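Example 3.2
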Amino acid sequence: MSDVFRLLGTPRFGGILVVSDHASNHVPADIALGIDPQLLTEHMAIDIGVAEVGALLAQRAGFAAFQCAVSRLVCDVNREEDAPGAVAEASDGHAIPGNMLSVAARAARIARFHAPYHAALAAQLDAVPPALILSLHSFTPALRTCDKPRPWQVGVLYNEDDRAARLALPLLTAEGLVAGDQEPYSGKLLNYTMNRHAEAEGRPYLGIEIRQDEIADAAGQARWAEILFRVTNAVALRLGE
């Protein structure tokens, strides 16, 4: 195990690997972000619920979960390493003084977290190739800048490769869910990890965003683990036909 990532379950050749870039709100003891600790419980620091859903899936045969072990405020591994958001100086209207770094210090932060996370994920995918990668994130029920609630319970995101997305959308709808196609934002805009490890390598993947109120408690997390177990298995089988 690593202080950069955690691997739950036993990866299987031809199985499903659940990848969550924003599964943790951990801040290493030697990094002072200079923010109110309460902010670490909010979406700016963590994708609420995805660690638990991934852990439940990893208990199933054929599933494993690869999760980033530090907060996105420490290093956002789902951004290009030279993107400002990889070590964000502000998020959701809050300044992050501890991320206002020199060029050298920022490079050291990237080298400590971003580079080994992606190296480990690449090695894992090469060592035990899955039939499908499930990229699992969560989104806020409403934006702070807009009072209108987001209607989608789940969104399916992708960039150029929509093979799994086209299979998953009707399956999610059949579960009685309000499913968004490229909602609440487009995977063509924010898809770095899957662009690098799936699209660039021709590996099928399914990008899933669950609305956070759906997975904020144990009951919701268990329900969604069941839904994703059914849907991703069906997608993987159809991709293999």
